[in-house]
Structure formats: C-alpha cells, structure tokens
User: Fold these one by one.
Assistant:
Number 1:
Amino acid sequence: MVRHPSDEPLTPYGNRPMVTPIVNSVNYEYVDFDVLRQITNGEIDGYTYHRDDNPTVRKVEKDIAHMEQAKDCVICTTGMAACTMVYLTYLKAGDNLLTFHDVYGAHYKVCLMLERFGVGVTWINADEWRNAGDYVKPETRMIFLETPSNPLCKIVSIPHMKAVAEKAGAMLVVDNTFATPYHQHPLALGADLVIHSATKALGGHNDLMAGAIAGSKEHYDKLWFTRQAIGTTLDAYSASLLERGLKTFHLRAKRMAANAMAIAQYLHKHPKVARVRYPGLEDSTDRDVAGAQMQHGFGGMMAFDVGKTQKHAERFINSLKVMYHAVSLGATETLVCMPYLTTMLYMPPERRTTFGVRTNTVRLSAGVEEPDALLGDLEQALEAI
Ligand SMILES: Cc1ncc(COP(=O)(O)O)c(C=O)c1O
C-alpha cells in the first residue's frame, strides 16, 4: 500500500479523510484573480476544468508514480488511450515506430491509423529481440514493447532494448501491464515511459477502466498537454475505485504470482497440455532474462495449448467450474480465454497464428482464489476433453 507525504486538502475541520473524496465538479470557482494567475502559471496544483485535472484523479496519479518510481504520472480513460496518447505525443509523419508482433492486439488497429498519418511501423517477433538493432531505421523515434508480452508471455530484455533505443536516438516505452510494478520497474531498467492498462491488476476487480503513463516531470507535462487537448481524462468515480484497488494491489499481486506458478507447474506435467508459456518455469528459455529484470516472481499470466485442436481447448474451457471464461486480466477471479478467438480476432488471419499463438492456445490470468480449488478445476476440465 502506498503512503507518501500528502498535500491533499484537509476537511473544513482540519483533519484528513482516509479515502480521497470523489470530486465530481466539472469546473471550479476562482476565488480571486490571483488564484487564476497562480494556477495558469503552475505555481499551485489548482483546478479549473475536469478535462484539465481533477483532485481525485491527481491523488491516484501520485500513488502510481510512487509505485513505478516515477516523478509523475498521467492517468486517462483506458490502457489503449494511454498507448495512443503516447504515440500522438511523440511521433510525427516521417517517423518510424519499432514495435513487436507480441503486443496487445488492439495496437494493430492503432498502428494502421498511425500509418495513415504518415508514421512508419516496423514489426519484430519478440523472440528476435537480440537482433532488434538490425530493424532500426534512421527515422526510428520510438521503441514500444511489452514484457511479459500478451498473450504468450515472451520476455524482452529492457536494458538491451534501452541500448538499442539510445543508439537510435529513440525513446523506449514499456507496457508493464502483464508484469505490474510488484514484479518489474521498467523506468529503473532504462525505459523513458511506463504504461499500464490500470483496468487490469492495478484496479483488480473488473469494475473500472483506466490507463496510466508514468515517467519524468518533462514527460508528464507533454502527456498532460495531450490529455487536456483530446479529452481522455478519467472520471473521478473510476479514479476512486482505482485508489481502492491500489490499497490491496501488493497482496493480490503476490497471491496471483504464487497461484500462477502452481498452475504452470501443474500444467507443465499434464499429458494433455502440449506447451506452457510461463517465464517462471525452470526450463523456460526466458527464465534467465525474466529473472534479471523481474522480482518477487514472474507474474500472474500464462498461456498454454490444450489437447491438439481448437475443439479440445473449447471443451476444456466449457468444463471449468471455478475459473471464468472471460477476457481481461489481473482480476481477483481466475480468467481464461482463447486469444485466437478474442484479442487477436480482428487481425488478418495470417497474423493470428504466425508468432506462436495456436488455435488451441488458452491464456490464463491467475486470480486470488485458494490454489487447490484452481488445480482441482483444471484437473476435472482436462479430464473432460
Ligand atoms: C498488455 C495490455 N496493454 C494494454 C491493454 C489495453 O487496456 P484497456 O483495455 O484498458 O484499454 C491491454 C488490454 O487487455 C493489455 O493486455
């Protein structure tokens, strides 16, 4: 849980509420022109209009900045809004974005839009991160990656990619949604910006959508400008739910990682499971790189292939009684879905299976349930295929 020096307003009685009040006001009265001047000059953290800033949102921004060891953080409406804000803020026509096939599926759509605006996009298979330097172009201005990646939990070395970015004169942006700040601090490893879909483990309860971008004060100022211009400001109620989620984040992240490790080890030995992708497994080829940049374990996400066909995987999922068949991740409940039919559905058919996802691949997000209940559920569902 985050406790840091607070400059939150006191109540009229001079004490401080334990929970940040939900401020629903869209605009704020200037008590005099001096206050207006101080706000516009940035001398005080005052408020004008919700699209600019909101006190409930601001408190959570400070919490997440603290968790990511950042100077500041901009929160916005969704994880994809956060990614898009980063692209809009730092890329222009003629620039090149170097990114990985192994990123969340919606990037494919956003990259098509970037190309319409004249930004070139170069895609690399995350298995090839050691050769990423070969893909850099003179106009490469940003490298964007996820590690562990969605959905196959491929690991990319952040320090290696920092060296590639530095040589190219590009910025390095890391989506830390799968790892979470419990396991990984990309800024400390050389990233310029860290992004979250706070919809996932930071919120943790399937009841809010939010995105977060953390980094230096200079980056905060630039991203704030973008948010204020395009209006991706989060509502105060969602910010309050997010504040509540953050209070138990470390407990949940610890339990999710322990459950994921137990599940991965169980599946790894099961004859009906052909492949398990979890960076914490002893024989994972990613384990050393993951171990060097992650701490307290390897996170709550994994992917595995059930039986031999899509029908086998569907029958397995249909037989689950404790786990839920649903998209999203990082929640208190264990969630499973088939990337081929969900997060990758709208990609061209050849891209859906070229980079390691198969028609029987299942993605699993470990929840915080009792591990025995989860292992028992897997056992009976695998029996049913
Ligand atoms: C790694 C990753 N980044 C970003 C996103 C997008 O987040 P949101 O759904 O909050 O827009 C997702 C969504 O699943 C994700 O898995």
Note: The chain has 13 helices and twelve strands.
Number 2:
Amino acid sequence: MLVHFRKIIEKTKRALGAFDTFNFEITRGIIEGAVQEKSSIIVQITPKTMEYAGTETITQIIKSIADNQGRGIEIALHLDHGRTLEEVKQCIALGFSSVMIDASNKSFKDNIRLTKEAVKYAHHHNVFVQAELGVVGRGKKDYQKMILSPEEFLTDPDQAQEFVKKTKVDTLAIAIGNVHGHYKMEKGAPKLFLSVLEEIKKKIDIPLVLHGASGIAAGQIKQAINLGIKIINIDTEIRMAFKKALKKSLKDQKKELDPRKILAPTIEEVKKVVRNKIKIFNQ
Ligand SMILES: [Zn+2]
C-alpha cells in the first residue's frame, strides 16, 4: 500500500531501505521481498528511468504493484537524484511523497539556492525533499580519487548545519566515504568515515541518507545506523542480481521462448537481495 514518506520514516526504529527500480520485474522483486520481510520500504526511480520507461508509466507500475502484491506493507515513492525543478514537479504531480534535488555538484551557494526552490515548491504540495551535500562519487575515477583524497568528497559538518538551516530540507544525503556504482564491488567498498557521520549527527537533526551503499559490509552499515543513518539506498546490487539471474536463465533455458519463464528468475533474485538488505537494516 502506498503511503506518505513521512508516515514510514516516523515509525522506523532502525533504517529504511530505499531501492531503485527500473521495470516491472524489479519492482515486483523489491515489493515482494519487502512483503516477505513485513517491512516498510521506499521505492525510487531516477531521471534516467523516467526517460527509459516514461515517468507516468513506471509510476503506475509501482503504484499498481504496491496496491496489489504490496497490500500488506507500507511503501513510499521517492525521486532519486532529481536534477531539475521540472523533474521534481513532474514527480510531485504524479503523487510522489518525497523528491531528491541533487545539486551536490554545484557550489555550496548554488546547492542552497536550488534546494531552497525545490523545498518551497514541494512543501507547498506536502512533499518531502532530500538534498545532497558533499560528493557521493560515481564509478572508477571517483573511487580512485576518493581513496587518495577523501577530504575532497566528505560532507563538512558545519556546512551541513548551515545547509539544513537555510534550505529547510527534510532529509540529507551525506558523503562519508560512500561511492556509487559497480566498480567498488570488484575493488572492495571503501571504509566509511564514521567519525564524520558522528560530527554531522551532532549538528543536524533530520534523517540522514546513505547513498551508494551496495557492497558496504553489514558491520559498517550497522555502525552507520547506530550513528544516525536512517535511509539506505540500494541500486547496484539490484542491477547485478537482475543481470546475473537473466544470464543464468537464458543459459539454462536455451530453447525457451516464453518471456515469463525467462524473466521469472530475475524477480526471485531481486527479492533475495532486498530481503537480505532489509534484515541488515532492521537489526
Ligand atoms: Zn545516489
């Protein structure tokens, strides 16, 4: 069942999983996995998925699965890494209860300015806003740079305090050594700077979000939750599960022509990832 973001974040004792979906099969895997764990979740899409599937189409798919297969649990819809006010407005018009405006690649001043604009519009429509401060890098290049000079990426606790005060944002994605993408799955996820998280938590009192959490060891995740992380994004591990299951399915059933039989294992593999993550996040 679809509910407002506020409703599930207020109830969450440990941390909420925020899972990126791309299509029908992955959405079913995410929602059915959460149903099996009897857990609330956030289902989210990025602008690239909006382009790929059509924003209204993918939104209706999520809503429909939430209302049917996901009847027994509470699910919130979120825009992940919104780039523009137009994308934010589009999702709000379709019933999203939370949107991210990611201006973390801009200057501190411009990040504040764009976030403020998004907050003004979203709050007027009773919608939460997530922003990002610091840089959660992406892929091989950022991973290597982050290992050498993490200070270029990490969120500054004083800036975080000023940012939240000025923008009135509802949730904040922070950079504490986390990186997006597949590269770190081969090279080993970087260690989180938990002392930075501790400092940030002392200065701000809104839910903190950990992006790029795929591949980070369960122990580190649990420590981060203890220190104030409230929402954890999982994208890469879902992509990997989908691809692996699809490859195996095609190999195992070379002559199969029924797309349902070919794709069914992808739902099951995504479900497994989601269940495992929820277990870690709830512990
Ligand atoms: Zn992210």
Note: The mean pLDDT is 95.
